[in-house]
Write a structure and sequence with these properties.
heterodimer, A: about 525 residues, alpha+beta, D-Maltodextrin-Binding Protein, domain 2, 23 strands, about 20% strand, B: 13 helices
């Protein structure tokens, strides 16, 4: 009989713990009150290497530590570390007058010399910065006096200020952290000029950022920000419910760590609020126009896909209304994008007509159209890390089936999709534009880049003309000319239907109730934590 | 016994060489250009031809396969597994803390799993077919059938969120161990106690038990004899359980945000951080070989008959 007693005791013990614990469950308010000046956000990835001149680090974290010369805002380029600037008549020389009250986190002064050293360190690793065209234009950086610095370009390049405003690579690290005068092979520390300092980093667990009390813009109200590495989904949701973290936002790949329903549940609990940014980017299907012998190389087929997608249903049912339907590559609030373009609303009848006209016919009783013995069959690749892409892919698959098109959908992980895009090994794949600060210039510059949209655009009839115009627009100095060239570029890719828009993505923030001044930047990659405060 | 140990360890060496070679071959079978993989892992927005050539040169991808393997294997012997493609940090410095974290969780869980398995196994065997035996087996069957991520989520919700007793995730203090250890114990003890139970039942019917009883030994002493004999099977199973848990805590680590080997490996796989994947496979394989060798040696120590087989 003894053994039974042992089990009885164990059972009783567990039971007692559970019951006793149950009694004390009523008061979990205290924790919330204590941590009022702190934010703790969940991120599925570690902050990684915070070297601001490379690309492995988490952008929201880099945005807290480092600053650029100028800032990209809704009203255009504004001063940041540079108080003012002049652009020479020929457009090839930029003179910046720096703020004189800025120091790096380690106490080193921020001056013209530091600017020169940083920009030169970036230029010494120019191969890795090929995407940012400014890196191919900078000839020299000259120190004029302690707080004046001049940037000399090889030719006029209008997006210079916009590219200088980006989270990386043209941001400033204390020269004391350089290794042998360089940053390309690693750095000794992460002392920037930003509103927060990196206080502690435990790889794959957490990183703690503390307010920079000597910040030139005044010490931020939120004194401590913790980035906790938590897997997306249930764990993050439970941690939010318990209050172990109190903040989540859309990550730099456009994925949310909890789904729309979980967010709504948190808001209903009255502990949290939900804030959404304006449309930041366009989520789309990219068509490979250079895929010869494949239906996707035909404009009519791409147009038919465009017509056959019911974006309102995707917006309403898949995104619960959190993302609006998009009918063009760049929404009208993007610079230079207010262009008259052909309207292609959802209309499966038109889609069928377009296909018939192009010679894709439905033989008696067949489910899939054919032309000269070829089947109208395509592959669509989606990112398995995104919950919504799969559902959209299934939805679109069934939509195009109705117009006699066979679409096979294939899920792969992010880097494999990136690899397909770079090598041109795809018919159709999901993608998104780079965001307000990068649109249209960076996204359009990427039309000519092998690893981005070269394969997408190369197959269209006016490809050469398109590439010529892209080169022209980047060096144009006259605003009106630039507008008209951009209009031409956008019209060409719109008419060719190589970028099939679906919805406009936004940044979503779930924050504790009582947190004020939650705003957004022009990029989907960072948040201005320094402007936030508690009631 | 000494010569047995030497021989047993001697077998492990060629095994390890084979594993290391296979690991290297499998990773290199990937059709992707390794330089492109490195650059994509670093999130470089635009990969140019020059950059690919430069990276190939810098990381020695231009060299013949066997040279690269020998170079890698020689470095591994000095615990130099290269540098991570993503962070540029030493693989050893990245993987060692994660390995320790997983090892801690594994060892603590193993203690509970072994204790629970023996307790339940013995208790059920002693009362074979009775109410308790049936109910313990039924409950264990039910619990082990529950997917562990689901069980974990439910437990986090109940104990951490609802009762506010324990942290939901992370590895902050001893309290962080409680939930993952319980979940692991439930998943594994439910399987292993059956092994203990059935080997006890085999022993109970042996002649020596009958003789023991006939010669008037106390029931307690007889039970100890049965236990000692039936544990022989269990020991090798338990010894192998440690590397099995070590290699399969991915799910638990993910749910509990445990900064361990499982999560590191999944992250490395998703970002194609080949040096980390290679090191991970190698470490888990070494753990298997190590614990397998240990279990053989323990068994040989307990049962001299086994020593002659080698």
């Amino acid at each position: 009989m003894k053994k039974v007693n042992v089990f009885a005791w164990i059972g009783l013990f567990i039971f007692t713990i559970v019951v006793l614990a149950g009694c004390s469950s009523e008061k979990d308010e205290a924790a919330n009150g204590e941590a009022r000046a702190e934010l703790s956000y969940a991120s599925s990835k570690d902050i990684n290497d915070m070297n601001p001149h490379l690309y492995a680090g988490s952008m929201p974290a880099q945005g807290m530590l480092y600053e650029s010369l100028v800032e990209n805002t809704q009203e255009g380029i504004k001063p940041l570390l540079a108080e003012s600037w002049e652009i020479a008549e020929d457009g090839k020389s930029y003179t910046f007058h720096l703020r004189e009250d800025v120091v790096f986190h380690d106490g080193e002064p921020f001056n013209a010399e530091a600017v020169k050293l940083n920009i030169e360190a970036v230029q010494h690793n120019a191969e890795k910065h090929a995407w940012i065209k400014l890196s191919t234009k900078i000839v020299s950086v000259n120190v004029k006096d302690e707080f004046t610095v001049e940037l000399q370009l090889s030719e006029p390049y209008y997006p210079t200020l916009v590219e200088l405003s980006m989270t990386r690579p043209y941001v400033f690290l204390s020269p004391k952290d350089f290794v042998n005068g360089e940053t390309k092979d690693g750095v000794n520390g992460y002392n920037g000029t930003g509103p927060y300092k990196l206080a502690e980093h435990q790889t794959d667990e957490y990183a703690i950022f503390e307010a920079n009390d000597s910040y030139w813009g005044g010490s931020p109200q939120i004194k401590k920000i913790t980035s906790k590495v938590l897997p997306a989904g249930e764990t993050t949701f439970l941690a939010l419910q318990k209050g172990e973290i109190n903040f989540v936002f859309t990550d730099d790949r456009g994925a949310d760590s909890i789904d729309v329903e979980a967010m709504e549940q948190l808001v209903e609990s009255n502990d949290y609020q939900l804030v959404r940014s304006e449309a930041m980017n366009t989520k789309m299907i990219v068509a490979n126009s250079s895929r010869i012998d494949n239906p996707v190389s035909e404009t009519a087929v791409r147009e038919a896909i465009w017509y056959s997608i019911d974006r309102d249903t995707i917006s309403k049912d898949i995104f619960n209304g959190t993302e609006a339907a998009a009918n063009r590559l760049f929404s009208a609030n993007v610079n230079y994008a207010d262009v008259d373009l052909k309207v292609r609303d959802y209309d499966s009848e038109t889609a069928k007509e377009v296909l018939e006209k192009a010679g894709w016919l439905l033989e008696n009783g067949a489910a899939v159209r054919t032309k000269a013995g070829n089947k109208l069959a395509l592959n669509l690749y989606y990112d398995t890390n995104s919950a919504s892409q799969k559902i959209q892919a299934e939805f679109i698959q069934s939509s195009v089936k109705a117009i006699g098109m066979q679409m096979d959908i294939i899920g792969e992980e992010s880097s494999s999709i990136a690899n397909r895009r770079a090598t041109g090994d795809y018919d159709l794949l999901f993608n998104q534009t780079w965001g307000l600060a990068y649109d249209p210039q960076s996204t359009i510059a990427a039309f000519t880049s092998e690893s981005a949209y070269y394969h997408t655009t190369r197959g269209i009839t006016q490809a050469d003309e398109l590439y010529k115009k892209i080169d022209e627009v980047m060096v144009s100095t006259d605003e009106e000319t630039r507008k008209s060239i951009y209009a031409d570029i956008m019209t060409i890719v719109h008419d060719e239907a190589v970028f099939i828009p679906i919805t406009n993505g936004r940044v979503t923030v779930v924050a504790p109730k009582g947190l004020n001044d939650i705003s957004f930047k022009q990029t989907q990659y960072e948040l201005p934590f320094e402007r936030m405060s508690f009631e | 016994m000494g010569s047995y140990m030497v021989k047993r360890i001697g077998i492990a060496v060629p095994l390890l060489i084979m594993i290391s070679f296979l690991t290297f071959v499998l990773i290199n079978l990937s059709p992707l250009d390794p330089a492109v993989v490195v650059l994509q892992a670093q999130d470089i927005p635009e990969v140019t031809e020059e950059l690919i050539a430069q990276t190939n040169e810098k990381l020695g991808f231009n060299q013949p396969f066997m040279i690269r393997y020998l170079h890698w294997a020689a470095s591994c012997l000095q615990l130099d597994f290269g540098v991570s493609y993503v962070t540029g940090e030493s693989v050893w410095l990245t993987i060692a803390p994660a390995f320790l974290n997983t090892l801690k969780l594994t060892l603590v869980s193993s203690v509970f799993i072994i204790v629970m398995s023996i307790l339940l196994g013995v208790a059920c065997a002693m009362r074979e077919g009775k109410m308790m035996d049936k109910s313990v087996r039924g409950i264990a069957f039910f619990l082990t059938a529950i997917p562990s991520y689901w069980l974990a989520s439910i437990m986090i919700w109940y104990f951490s969120v609802h009762l506010d007793l324990l942290p939901t995730s992370g590895m902050d203090s001893y309290r962080s161990y409680i939930l993952p250890v319980i979940v692991l114990t439930i998943s594994y003890a439910g399987i292993y106690f059956r092994t203990v139970r059935s080997s006890m039942l085999n022993q109970i019917n042996e002649d020596y038990v009958l003789y023991g009883r006939a010669s008037g030994l106390s029931e307690k002493k007889i039970t100890m004899h049965i236990l000692r004999n039936s544990l022989q099977v269990a020991i090798s199973i338990f010894a192998m359980a440690i590397p099995i848990i070590l290699g399969s805590t991915v799910v638990i680590e993910n749910v509990f945000a445990w900064p361990g080997l499982g999560r590191l490996s999944v992250k490395a796989i998703l970002s194609r951080d080949f040096p980390i994947i290679q090191a991970y496979v190698l470490i888990v394989a070494v753990a298997f070989v190590f614990f397998n060798t240990i279990s053989d040696i323990i068994n040989a120590a307990m049962n001299p008959k086994l020593r002659k087989d080698l």
